[in-house]
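not sure who needs this but someone in the group chat was asking about MscS mechanosensitive ion channel from Pseudomonas mandelii JR-1 so here u go. i didnt clean anything up, its just raw.
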Amino acid sequence: MRNALKSMMFVVLTLLATSDGALSAADILPAAGITSGTSSLVISQSDLQNLQIRLDRIKQQISLANNLTQMVGLQDAVQSFINDVDSLQSSLLPEQKQLQAQLDVLGPVSLDDVESEKSDIATQRAYLSEQKTKVDSSLKTLTALRNNAAGLLIQIAGIRRNLLESEVTLRSGSILGPGFWAPLFSPLKEDRQRLSEFIQQASSAIKAAWQPGERLFTIALIVLALGVWSWGRRIAERGLTWVCIHRMPEGRLRRSSLALASVVATLLTTAFAMQLLFYALTRQLPLSPLIQNFADEFEKIIYVCILITGLSRALLSTRHPSWRLPAISDPVALAIQPFPRILAVTLLILVSLAQITNVTGMSPPAILFGRGLIALVVTLIIGTLFRRASRVRRAVAATGEAPESSTTLAGLIYSLAGFATVVSLIALLIGYISLARFITYQLVWGFIILSGFYLLTQLFRDSCEYLFSPKSPSGKALKQLLGIGDVRLEQASIILSGVGRAGLMLLAVISLFVGGVGTTLGQLFTQTFAILGGDGLRKLNIIPGHLLNALLALFIGIYLIRALRRWLDNEFLPKTDMDPGMCASLSTLFSNIGYALVILLTLSSLGIEWTNLAWIVSALSVGIGFGLQEIVKNFVSGLILLTERPVKVGDLISISGVEGDIRRINVRATEIQLSDRSIVIVPNSQLISQNLRNVTLGGSAQGVATLELMFPLDIDPEQVQNLLYDTYRENETILDKPATFVRFSKLTPEGITLTVTGYVSSPRIVGTTKSDLLFEILKRLGAAGIELAKPASTV
């Protein structure tokens, strides 16, 4: 009876556990005491074996690959394998959780189940345990396969790096030599055969789509693809432009949205046109592996060319100069307008021909000729662009017009691009063909990455300014919802904008070095996330590549810290309610922590593992014990000053006979500015260990203006008392509370001494106030005919 109740309870709870109250047959049968073979979601052993065979085949192809193009294709294959494994794991995880939940409902094995092994509960538990064991086994196998594939990605990256290093350092002959042009005028017989085979396979694919009965549909698809690529792009761009103009708020956000709309319209229409074109040519007969490889690479090159033209058109905006995001004058924009299109067409033609040599496996001279021709033409185009832009800028400057506003980063990028162009041309002349091709490809890739991220950065900043603007609907809603003021909204906008731009800048720097011409968006995301989420280097293995990474990490880290500190000092901290001393302390503390992190990142880039730093720490401990203890003591004292803040920048202090304003708190010492504008440098440890008088601590310190005057014995003391009191009370800087008072301090044969005391708002204005009071007192004493006592003559 109790077993039957358990069985009914299990069925009810299982029904309640499902989302829609319905169970599959695989769930109801065990609940009713009927077993079935396997769950519908359990992967069979044959499927797992096929995955293992697929992975082994990829490993074999990696061992036989000998050029970068093959490695890129294999990297795509490994990534596709990982995606398939992830999909299978995602489908099994809910099944695993459901089986575990059903086992939890049944509970552990009870005494009644042991006595009656053939009960419903025992049968159900055995069935569910068997199913969960199969699912766990499948998940474990899939995890192992995924880990192996992830290791292959790391190995492929290493092989690609080695192939690249070997290619760029190979000297193959100058472009001025006859050997470079030999594949063009007298190609080898095997190269002609491979080219003929490629043309034959391409013709077969075209003939399959051009066979009788299919020609009309093929023509319609090709015409439709061309229409989408040309007229469709214009229609989509005009539609998105209309949406931005009529739906986006007027201002900077509308301008950046218009630039992004131009790029998005170009990419979407091109992608749709490419899919139509490929469907028109491959719907009847699948492409051969050779033509398929070329088609994949050709598609990548088309997207690269479209990005070049789309980004340049969006950033130059020659038709609508008011929409232009970068600070480029109209003559310069008009002068360089045709060059991106020329560069895109050149890359489309030359790189496509070079890909034919790669996929068909032509001879090394033919491959080098294709690389050298690409590098030569692209270098000449970029060099001509720089020369024409410089000539137009000089002409504009000669007319007296205002020069273009430029930043240090933009000037640095422009200089590096010009230098790289010169190096590429020199490499072609002295015979380093692969190096020149690599430089030109990186120039093109750098333009795409920097232009794209510049556009995204501008859009993100403008979006933050609009969303948190007190005048926008979103800003008003946030004010009402959170009960904050305009200043807080502005602070939130600055913080979010700064964090977003810093993140985009970091992604741009990573993308510059992990990708290249032909890198897909998926590959770029995968490699970027691998870098951001990787464990780093694990051994102390300093090699030239690590040194380069360390230098890049050092320079980029210092630049980011300085940029963020300028953002804190100039944008964020001035918008807060903190006093200037607190702002300076926070800025200094941020920079100190940032530099420490940059040093750690640099050591990590060198390949130094933290466990290997024990000997460095031991050596430093000995040095600290002898010669560095004072430096360490001052450094720790500086951190205490910045955190506990017994003194801060702007305080008036007095220590060891030195009195002045704190100008700066550095890592080792503090700068104190005296009244004569001279600077006294005091070690931080003295500010912690010695008695220190902080005159302005808390911001409520008051100054005391006291004057002591001696009068002759024959004066009227009350008259003089009232005169002094009125003079103090009528002075603007003297406070009402505490009240001013006049005291009879001394009576001598030489005269009567009166002391008058008043309070001012700050100790810094005591001297100026006392001077003004003395001038006024002497003026009033002279008008009243009262003289000061004269000191007695000394014989």
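also Residues 120-168 form the longest helix (49 residues). if thats useful
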